[in-house]
């Protein structure tokens, strides 16, 4: 499945063009699982390991604390991978206003509607949308062309990082959704290294990983392993 064309910001924008939309190795942060390194330490290790996307996710952080985290993370990721903010469009906009190189937002089904988010973040930012059911796909397909850049599809396996998750899709269920859309699909939810080949063959444009990187003894090496497995699956 081909990826969308690279987005670039208008010539008058204060920030440089976005990195190409490579979704292959995608880290979703988890403060609880990050241990002694902390979230920023895990991000730095993942960047060293070749991560292509970092999504900052923290549902319980105070707004100012999350803003400070986004700005700090942008200093690590700028020019090296995409940095996305989960849910908090306000924090994304505030960080952009402060000059931080933040590339986009990911929203779920219970967050602001994707069309409203696109209107707020502008045409050049990356927008991801969680979609786990045929109804979610129909809603995504009804959006104007270009409103959403990719879909986050899962969970693949049951996972403790999202206790209220829907029924696990497995690789076969993921593949059914991926084949039903022209949008790139990123698999998420309890993903293990051994899932890489099967998910890529099922149509994944990338793997969103939480615990297998955040809780790893060596997050940089764990990221390298996922990147290598992805490349090997392509071969």
The value of Rg in angstroms is 16 Å
Strand order of the largest sheet: 1-2-3-4-5-6-7-8
Quick one: CATH class?
Answer: Alpha Beta
What's the order of the H and E elements? EHEHEHEHEHEHEHEHH
Q: What count of helical segments does DSSP give?
A: 9
The shape, in one word, is globular
Give the class from helix and strand content and strand pairing.
alpha/beta
Return the CATH architecture.
Alpha-Beta Barrel
Integer average pLDDT = 91
Distance between the termini: 15 Å
Key words describing this protein structure:
235 residues; alpha/beta; eight-stranded parallel barrel; 9 helices; 15% strand
Protein described:
- The chain is an alpha/beta fold.
- It has a single domain (25-234), classed as Aldolase class I (TIM Barrel, Alpha-Beta Barrel), CATH 3.20.20.
- It is built from nine helices and eight strands.
- An eight-stranded parallel β-barrel has the order 1-2-3-4-5-6-7-8, surrounded by five helices.
- α1 (38-48) runs parallel beside α9 (219-234) and α2 crosses α3 (89-97).
- It is globular, with a radius of gyration of 16 Å.
- Mg(2+) binds at residues 87, 111.
- Pathway: Cofactor biosynthesis; thiamine diphosphate biosynthesis; thiamine phosphate from 4-amino-2-methyl-5-diphosphomethylpyrimidine and 4-methyl-5-(2-phosphoethyl)-thiazole: step 1/1.
- 2-[(2R,5Z)-2-carboxy-4-methylthiazol-5(2H)-ylidene]ethyl phosphate binds at residues 159-161, 190, 210-211.
- This is Thiamine-phosphate synthase.
